[in-house]
Prior knowledge:
The protein has helices at about 15-20, 35-45, 60-70, 90-100, 110, 120-125, 145, 150-160, 175-185, 205-215, 230-240, 245-260; strands at about 5-10, 50-55, 75-80, 105, 130-135, 165-170, 190, 220. The chain is α/β, with parallel strands linked by helices. It has a single domain, classed as Alpha-Beta Barrel (TIM Barrel), CATH 3.20.20.140.
Amino acid sequence: MMIIDVHCHAWPDALAERALSGRVPQLERHGDGRISSLRDVLTRSGVDRGVLLGIADTARHVDGVNRFVARERGDRLLGFGTVHPDLPAEENLASLRRNGITGVKLHSLFQGVAYDDPRLWDVLEAFGSEIAVIAHVGAGGDRRSNERATPAMVRDIARRFPDLRLIACHFGGYHRLDEAEDVLLGENVYLETSWPPTMAEVDPDRVRKIIGRHGADRVVFGSDWPMADPAREIAAIRALGLSDERTERILGGNFARLMGLNGDD
Length: 265
């Protein structure tokens, strides 16, 4: 069984502290966010592959972030890059192709991006099925920021772009789980399991019911390192008491299938 953590944040060592400063201050960190630390964390946690997620806060940083992701991937790391709606769709797509990147991270809180922004929809339309998307959904900032990425917005994206390979973080709604259950379960979207500081804080029976209603074949494991400890999150998933087959699919098999990975990738 291959364990894949689809939600890992890291920056160049010299920039990590500044990049993390002031972000989600209410959460305790479980790591320093340095790229040099990430591989060791994955190894100690029993994770075979981690997905390094790049995020450009502004349009001018998009290509630099994508170059960083392209440079660091390999060995234990897969790479998802970044886009920004202040860039035309064709420029975003060109940066991804130039750097050989097949997935992106959207983060409404850090990028100031609303998921119903027509400029973002232009980018998503350009992706088709070529570029996968993993997106923060739900709370984590102030009230205004929290309304930029609601479960209903993600549902609308999934319906508008049926070919898009879309992953919704935090079970589709961080601290908005009622709404996520109402509008996202059963939709054409994968749900990701991270819930900083730990998924173990969510009622296990509720998690089992969410997985049962949505389908265990459309749930993927993510930790959100450095805001959570991958080893603890793996333990929380195993503690759900799902069948071995379902647990293995969630911990790695589903993402490998979604991204067309094999043992050599």
